[in-house]
From TrEMBL:
Gene3D superfamilies from the UniProt entry: MFS general substrate transporter like domains, Multidrug resistance protein D
Residue ranges of every copy of the Major facilitator superfamily (MFS) profile domain listed in the record: 9-493
Keywords, sorted A to Z: Cell membrane, Membrane, Transmembrane, Transmembrane helix, Transport
Annotated localization: Cell membrane
Alphabetized InterPro entries for the sequence: EmrB-like, MFS, MFS_dom, MFS_trans_sf
Species in which this protein is naturally found: Dactylosporangium maewongense
Pfam families: MFS_1 (PF07690)
Protein name in the entry: MDR family MFS transporter
NCBIfam families tied to this protein: efflux_EmrB
Chain segments annotated as transmembrane: 12-31, 43-62, 74-93, 99-124, 136-154, 160-180, 192-214, 220-243, 264-286, 298-316, 328-345, 357-378, 470-488
Topology within the bilayer: Multi-pass membrane protein
Transmembrane helix is among the record's keywords: yes
SUPFAM superfamilies documented for this protein: MFS general substrate transporter (SSF103473)
Amino acid sequence: MSDKRLRVVLPGLLMAMLLAMLDNVIVGTAMPRIVGDLGGVDHLSWVVTAYVLGSTVSTPIWGKLGDLYGRKTVFLTSIVLFLLGSVLCGFAQDMPQLIGFRAFQGLGAGGLMVGAMAVLGELVSPRERGKYQGQFAAVMAVAMVGGPLVGGFITDHADWRWAFFVNLPLGGAALALLALKLDMPKKRTEHRIDWLGAALLSAGVTALVLITTWGGNQYAWGSAQIAGLAALAVVSLAAFMVVERRHPEPILPLAIFRNRNFSLVAGIGFLVGFAMFGAITFLPLYQQIVQGASATNSGLLLLPMMGGLLVTSLVAGQMITKTGKYRIFPVIGGFVMIVAMVLLSRLDSDTSKTESAIYMAVLGLGMGFLMQTSMLIAQNSVELKDLGVASSTSTFARSIGGAFGVAAFGAIFNHRLHDLLAEKVGDQAADQLAGGGGGGASIGPATLGQLPAGVRTAVIDAIAGATSSVFLWAIAATVLVPLLAIFIREVALRGGPEAPNEQAESTLVAQEG
């Protein structure tokens, strides 16, 4: 597609991605108002879990459907489902309804990010795609910073239902623009959908997400419930692999993992999700409790990280387009992330906002070298017919890594928080403050000021110490990122003067092991 035509449809792709990134942040900010109106505080976590389940389970399926039936139709369908789910959530009358509608909304959300990346991958050659990395990084920055601001405004000045209705104008504009201006070929060939594979993958992924959500919180890690979910995950995923090897149109063609580059960037995506999303989950708590930031301003404090991400995404994208070389960027990004995790592990109760901003900026610099570059390598490593699968698998790996990271680092955070509090105020008080290992349930900005001065100081020091421990452990996962990236092979990007032709490239993808 020419640059002129692409500039017309690119805003629609960016708006769809923005929808997917904004929603959970806005809803999370509005949750106190939602619970106050609908009740059901004991089901609070399910409002988030249902959405995450729906989006994670559907991500690989949307990618494959786009490969089979054409990206435009499938992408527009995911937007429609997401908007319909938003309307239903906005009209929910009780907590069970909201949870069910959030799961439905998540099914649509699973296709937004994957659809946008796959559509861009088909419209723009990998060699030229680097020019647009900065714009996608900018969308992430807007979502990370704008989400808490929008959610805070809705919480303070409007009905909580607008946390869902706010999706309609943005999504409607994206839908109309893409329906009218996005010109892509329609698939007309007959296909057999791998329904059994989709069901087995969904069951396995659902079990994994529930393990990471419930483990150590609702149920003990060694409980029968967690063990049963682990068994379900193992059996379902093992059966899924058997089915995929035999089906003519597998949901996830296992052959693509024979490509070394694809397997490496999938592993890198998992590790980046594990270390990055798992660790930075605890930064807002640190900023609000230790540094005294408001819930809204804690979003603004992430600006340095987003700025760093934007800068290196632009630099890497332009360099890739100019030279066609990309192998060095994941290596650099991995080493920069290690430095960032080391710096963030130094956080304590005396760390100034300026220091923490510098640390987060370094993390953003590393992320910028990794995020879009990994997606580009994944898409360039497969045949064009598997572009959607490559996009969804890359996104899926990062999402699963993030889910495991949040669970693992949550356990580390809770354990360290309790130990530090016990040293200062005793075991009984530590149990009360830290919710008996339940994630610091009774510690929050609203309750901090009500504590005696000595206890308040102990809480601040404990939160700071637990946060630094999380980043210290994250170093172990981050170290593996550049080690994997070193083994990435420099394969010519499609669309460049030295790129192999389509037939030769297909042979390379099929034979490379």
